[in-house]
């Protein structure tokens, strides 16, 4: 699996919990994060390079943990690679539509993901009568990266981004970015009636189904996580917290 950086570890944690018989390789493109402010062309090129690296490690299935990479590169990688490829957007959309009562739904994501229209397109394909409210939450990623989860300023930013959606009577929103699940508690405190969809949980279920359908699900306990990052800096002090509880066998720095 890969992500633009470390945020995708939220998806990895769910996958490890759901699939104890599988071994995982996590690739975080920490040297080039964030993808969320970049163009489709660049995100496609980066995703292609990362996938080639992972194929060199003999993977049997690829999970694109990054929403922005899924938005721009999922269909491309599906065509190019001979292994099953799963992105985080469709599982999130399925859960969003299963959860909403009034079909007024919100999409919270990076600018680049919102601009791609990937969520809105898939929602309307499945439920043409849905009303979709998109919100690019550009400040959420830096706040989470800084570890500012419970700060007053974070509360104000949440208020700013979400109050319009709530005014429009949106009842369910998908957290369409790897970092946003870490803000779940703060969002719930301010908007307790809003249903939040965490695509990492849904992606773990979808991965499990895809392994089964493709006949490649491991039957014997294996486990183990290898992590590759394109840059390791001393600002990654939250790496240890994110990795807590995962059986990580190595964290290596690589160049593509
Ligand atoms: N991983 C990205 C996503 O899920 C968020 C961080 C970034 O902008 O690279 O969209």
Description:
The chain has 2 domains: 139 residues, 3-Layer(aba) Sandwich (Rossmann fold); 110 residues, Rossmann fold, CATH 3.40.50. It is 45% helix and 18% strand. The strands form 3 sheets. Strands 1-2-9-10 form a 4-stranded parallel β-sheet, with helices on both faces. A 4-stranded parallel β-sheet has the order 6-5-7-8, with helices on both faces. Strands 3-4 form a two-stranded parallel ribbon. Helix 9 links the parallel strand 7 and strand 8. Helix 1 packs across helix 10, helix 2 crosses helix 3 and helix 4 packs across helix 6. It starts with a strand and ends with a strand. Bound molecules: D-glutamic acid (DGL). D-glutamic acid binds next to helix 3. The site of D-glutamic acid has 17 residues, from helix 3.
């Amino acid at each position: 699996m890969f992500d633009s950086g470390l945020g995708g570890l939220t998806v990895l944690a769910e996958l490890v919990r759901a699939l104890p018989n599988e071994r995982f390789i996590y690739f975080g493109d920490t040297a080039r994060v964030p993808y969320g402010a970049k163009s489709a062309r660049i995100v496609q090129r980066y995703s292609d390079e990362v996938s080639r690296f992972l194929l060199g490690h003999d993977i049997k299935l690829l999970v694109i943990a990054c929403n922005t990479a899924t938005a721009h590169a999922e269909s491309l990688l599906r065509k190019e690679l001979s292994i099953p490829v799963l992105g985080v957007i469709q599982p999130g959309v399925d859960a969003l539509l299963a959860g909403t009562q009034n079909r007024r739904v919100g999409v919270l994501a990076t600018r680049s993901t919102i601009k791609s229209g990937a969520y809105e397109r898939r929602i309307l394909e499945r439920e043409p009568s849905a009303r979709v409210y998109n919100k690019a939450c550009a400040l959420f990623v830096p706040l989470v990266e800084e570890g500012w989860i419970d700060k007053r300023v974070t509360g104000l930013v949440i208020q700013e981004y979400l109050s319009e959606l709530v005014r429009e009577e949106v009842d369910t929103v998908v957290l369409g970015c790897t970092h946003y699940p870490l803000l779940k508690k703060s969002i719930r405190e301010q908007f307790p009636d809003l249903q939040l969809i965490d695509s990492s949980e849904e992606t773990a279920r979808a991965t499990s189904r895809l392994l089964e359908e493709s006949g490649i699900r491991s039957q014997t306990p294996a486990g183990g996580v290898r992590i590759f990052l394109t840059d390791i800096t001393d600002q990654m002090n939250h790496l240890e917290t994110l990795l807590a509880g995962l059986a990580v066998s190595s964290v290596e720095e690589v160049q593509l």
